[in-house]
Design a protein that fits this description.
Blueprint (H helix, E strand, L loop, with lengths): L6 E5 L18 H17 L3 H15 L3 H9 L3 H8 L14 H8 L3 E6 L4 H11 L2 H4 L3 E2 L12 H9 L6 E5 L2 H10 L3 E5 L9 E3 L13
Parallel strand pairs: 1-2, 1-4, 2-3, 4-5, 5-6
Length: 221
């Protein structure tokens, strides 16, 4: 049996592989569209007025945080996948900054590492983004989304990747821009972590300003 000597790099997507227009999820306008789509979805599914639907959503946000799909499923037996495919079917071009160099960079990186994508976003949004950036083929067999019960925000998504792919935690490097959902859970189980941000992160092993600065760390990783 052939032994795989490559280490695995687990990439966050939003804010890591690309930047939002407006430099944040909320400032890009995407958050507002998701909320607007959710209100319309609740109106149609539950026969609510727009005001009533907004009240339903507010209650779910208060109880479940950003896990709207789980809230709708638990409270109203609404299929989470139907919710995702309806609400998150959004044109990425309007909100994502295009990077013409990212594909070549990842292909070069792939020579020495196995590349995995881990996002709490639903599959349909992941697909829209990866297709727009031209990197779907790079990740297509190693995509872990936020549609199931294993999510970064719950702290169990990284373990799922290791179990599914039969890899050891000390052979994994996580790249992300969020301390709470990318860096802390990765370090907690023994993975190395690279934080993408303007200021140094005290928990991560390394801090870089953007994804392309990862080139400087390849030998260290």
């Amino acid at each position: 049996m052939k032994v795989n000597h490559k280490k695995t790099i687990i990439f966050d997507m939003d804010g890591t592989l690309y930047k939002f227009k407006g430099d944040s999820f909320r400032n890009s306008g995407l958050y507002g569209v998701v909320i607007e789509n959710t209100v319309s979805y609740i109106c149609n599914k539950l026969g609510k007025t727009k005001l009533e639907a907004q009240e339903v959503l507010d209650a779910i946000l208060k109880k479940y945080g950003n896990s709207i799909s789980i809230g709708l499923e638990n409270e109203f037996k609404i299929d989470r996948y139907d919710y995702f495919n309806s609400v998150w079917n959004i044109n990425a071009k309007k909100y994502v900054k295009f990077d013409s160099t990212i594909s070549a960079f990842l292909l070069e990186l792939q020579k020495n590492f196995d590349l995995v994508l881990l996002s709490d976003a639903p599959v349909i949004w992941i697909s829209r983004v990866l297709d727009y950036l031209g990197i779907m083929e790079i990740f297509k067999n190693n995509i872990f989304s936020g549609e199931g019960d294993a999510r970064k925000e719950f702290g169990n998504a990284f373990e799922k990747i290791c179990k599914t792919m039969n890899i050891k935690v000390n052979r994994c490097i996580v790249i992300g821009d969020q301390e709470e959902t990318d860096i802390i859970p990765a370090k907690k189980i023994g993975m190395k972590a690279v934080f993408i941000g303007k200021s140094k992160n005290s928990i991560a092993d390394y801090t870089i300003n953007n994804i392309h600065e990862l080139k400087k760390l390849v030998n260290k990783l």
